[in-house]
Amino acid sequence: MRKFAAALIALIMAVSTGGCIGDRGGPSGQPATDGGGVSGPSAAHERVTISIYYPTPDLPENRAHEDDKIRRFTAQYPYVDIIKSNWQYNPNEIGIKMASGEAPTLFNTFASEGRYLAERGWAADITELYDAYAHKEQINPLLQNQFMIGGRVYGLAERGYVTGIVVNKRLLDERGVKPPSYDWTWDDLLEVAQAASNPAKGVSGIAPMGKGNESGWNWTNFLFEAGGEILTVDKGKVRAAFHGEAGLRALQLYHKLAWEVRAIPKDWAVGWNDAISMFVQGKTAMIISGPDSPIIQALNQWRMPPEDVLFYPMPSEKAGGKHTGILGGDYLVINPNATRAEQEAAFLYATFDMFTDQSLEALDAEIAEREQDGQFYIPPFIPYFKNDSDFGRRVKSIYGRHTNVYAYDEDAARLFDGKVEGQYNTQQYYGAVTSMVQAVFADPGVNLNQLLQETAKNVQSQNFDKLTVLGLP
């Protein structure tokens, strides 16, 4: 676990991967003057095409940002053609994509996938490119270290978060519920969720996600708060560890939310998008999430006032305990099957908006434009750069010049405690835990300990027993 205080400044880097974009004529591009370290494809500006991850349609602001980035990048590097890829990273598909040659040159992934991709040879070793990068000393090690494995670099940190609870203060006010202290507990959560529920109007106190792997992801935060672990690794063997006393207490909490205080939605089969929709439409007072997407939609698409959208740390199990949430993030990985020139171009694209004067000017202009349109700018919770770096101070200065930058509460941010997910079969584990959560929500009489033990046994036999730890430290 790593304790950290407010990580309140960031530059949105929605790197992406459809149609071919780029100037196919004109002079050869020149290396970045302030992007640092990498001068472009090695073969004298030979024309090169790279495919990149492109944000999903439900993120129009991120798409607009990416389109602007592509325009600026291809103006500076006209010999690079960009293809937008519609593929979203999926651990169940990445092997097929690699084998068929369909994986993008540059794709996004989760914090939990670094070792998985590196050990299987599905992430390029970019150590030489990284070491030559002029601004590497300013990169946030809290994030970047997740993709530094065995002394080698396999990805770039894009942004990070710690899972917390997003609270609709207006719904609490309507029910006469006083918002809890940021230093709250599981008992406080149960009390507030029960009081905020309004079944007659179809409003739940909290909407834990109950379908998709996000359901297992939600529950794991409570496992961590109770002091539990997903797995252990000993002598090359991976063992399930979530079925101990900590896991049982976390499962008992979910049972209480569903059947004692009856604070979850009647239709509890809530996925990621469902939960955010319920939140912004006033159908639930709380959701378990990182802050970016819920707050962006609440403020900019549903015009909720910022004082009604609060981001809380996860509640501690007991008073005085840690407010531990999953430390996650978005990372950029380069396809190891790409040519050297393609890999270098992908690295150039990935770092294009990092640490440059041009990126600061673009950030300032973007915030100003949103200000004119009555839109808020919501920074990622944890930046890719160090807060105390020169670049960090310059970003903070830009934020201070505008009135439409959403600010996370510093008193809340000081309490966040981040814990990294397990690094083996994390998504498969989440899927199994989702089935466990669904059993709890569906049956008040389910034997919780038996359910927990059976789930761990299945995860062990179907996933962990099949793993070969390949020896990367």
From TrEMBL:
Tell me the keywords, alphabetical order.
Signal
Magnesium as UniProt keyword:
no
Q: InterPro entries annotated for this entry?
A: Bact_solute-bd_prot1, SBP
Tell me if Hydrolase is a UniProt keyword of this record.
no
The record's annotation in Gene3D superfamilies points to: Periplasmic binding protein-like II
Q: Where is the signal peptide?
A: 1-21
The identity of this protein, by name, is: ABC transporter substrate-binding protein
Please name the source species. Paenibacillus aurantiacus
